[in-house]
Design brief:
The protein is mostly beta strands and 110 residues long. 0% of the residues lie in helices and 41% in strands. The chain has no helices and nine strands. It has strands at 21-26, 30-31, 39-44, 50-53, 62-67, 75-78, 85-89, 94-99, 104-109. The strands form two sheets. A five-stranded mixed β-sheet has the order 1-3-5-8-9, with no helix packed on it. A four-stranded mixed β-sheet has the order 2-4-6-7, with no helix packed on it. β6 (75-78) and β7 (85-89) form a beta hairpin. The protein is globular.
Length: 110
Amino acid sequence: MAYNASAAFVLPRHIRVKDGVEARGITESVTLTYRSSQYQILTLTAGSPVTCMLPAAKNGAYFWIKNSSSSDAAININEPAGGSTITTTTAGQGALVVSDGSSWYEVIKA
């Protein structure tokens, strides 16, 4: 469905997502759910790459995922259906992934 409203919805204040940021150290792969924070700051303390598995595709869902590791180990961000890699982040990189209800997509990687 395309956006077709004639006027913008204006918020009079900044948005604050309660419990919306999760910063944690990881040594193995993680699986996100819709109870997980939408902003994931993951510090990989293992030396080998791990996987961050997304939940089932849901229209409008998104996650910001940052690899805040100091090592060169990567975090592969994978789709749950089939486990294919959507994007890979290395130390210091982050990615915005979004879903249209049938798939996940990388929108921004920096």
